[in-house]
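Hi V.,

You were right to ask for the full record rather than a summary. Here it is.
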Amino acid sequence: MLVLILAYLGGVLTILSPCILPVLPFVFARSDRPFMRNGLPMLLGMAITFAVVATLAALGGGWAVHANQYGRYVAMVVLAFLGLTLLSTHLAEWISRPFVALGNRLSQRSAGDGESIWGAAGLGVATGLLWAPCAGPILGLLLTGAALNGASVQTTLLLLTYAAGAATSLGLALLIGGKVFGLMKRSLGAGEWVRRALGVLVLCGVAAIALGLDTGLLTRVSLASTGGIEQKLINAVRPAPAPEAALKAGEPLPVEGQMPSLAGATQWLNSPPLTSESLRGKVVLVDFWTYSCINCIRSLPYVRGWADKYKDHGLVVIGVHAPEFAFEKDPANVAKAVKDLGVDYPVALDNDYAIWKGFNNEYWPAHYFIDPAGQIRHHHFGEGNYRESEDVIRQLLTVAGQKNLPGGYVSDNHQGVEAAASNDPTRSPETYVGYARAQNFVGGRVANDEEQDYRVPGTLAADQWSLGGHWTVRDENAQLEQAGGSIVYRFRGRDLHLVLGPAGDGKPVRFRVTIDGKAPGADHGMDTDADGNGTVTSQRLYQLVRQASGSGERLFQITFLDPGVQAYAFTFG
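Predicted structure:
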């Protein structure tokens, strides 16, 4: 119930977002009509259309994205005609004849009435196809939940509730606007001029959407204006997960609940299927991870170390592989990564997020410590606190009756991509290349799911990035269509990683990296040489830069010498 309230409030706040501006003229264009027969059907059509399209898009249907794109083109044409009819009464009569006739037949009303509920609802559908609400924290939370939880009545209900909130605020604007325009007509005798002004605004709204301002400039302004309010609502309605309990010497660990079922695993590696019941009597460490996650990779040496050190003393380590990207759902990809990363303990493939949801987990990596009675006694999210985590393991094993446990702690001396991150708090944030979660992109409008030429701007500010060459940007990656394309990022951090994959046919893709326009030399990463050369051979995380000294701001560029590469996300260390 609280999440529904949050979704509704998030929709209501949409009216405060500058990116809603292109939609408002379509709403106000009906403000002089009866609300119940015009405004309300239009708002309902808009809300339902948005909920359906957003649900399908969140569930990863590429066909739905294409269908919505074509629907937007049709809707822009329809609403452009609406703007023209407001400018000219003669044109309005000519254009509206077939639509009025169809609406009258559908609503079984006389031709003399001229007000069709179906016609208003049709305008609402068109407006809903154009409506691209700003992906602020609340809508981002809803869409992420939809992607993780899959198709369900709850998914559609949440998005419909969000749309209803937006329709509510727009409905209030419609009612107030109707009174304002009515007053202007009566007091100024300027009804014709008001109608023409609305026509101009409608055409301006169509132009803004056609130019991508609703999903570009205005969206970024919107995030700045409403993001803080939305985040406060999220924190109030859905409190953050419980913090890690402070360990106190001599005191027992608290009980945080029972270990959920493992039955949802789609496959097991390194072990036959395990169950919560079969693990009774053992101390269990459950590690949620995914193989392209740099935070997970940096924590793996400790998890492997604990598994080896305490496996003969009653500890069972289970890696729950919950994929972030589609390619991480491929069992063959995961099996190769498990082998390459030296993971020899049981790994459950959680492609349907069943175990993830059972633990109510939200993080990669996440560690849950379970006693022999099947009770969760401690948890830790993210990297760090490794010694405290090993103390928890030792405490649970001791309570379970284990004696003569090996002393000391697992080594902190790890090399390569597994080395601990730098302590630079200003290092660049994780940055996604696909349009679903992309931020800080510069260099023009992104053409979703369509091939387009991109050009890198002359200058980039810190944490900004751009594409160069001929690319197709999809929801979770960008694919290079012609050799010679590049990605440029002005970053800060010791390490720069990029999740990459070869073309669909699996052919390797050669690339060359430069830093500040020069070969990286001593600053090259594990997957490049000193001249910046490397090859994408599989879908995984590639370490492209490791600065030998410091973590200062640098200009990174990777140029691909072959077509077909797929780029997913940057991470830094």
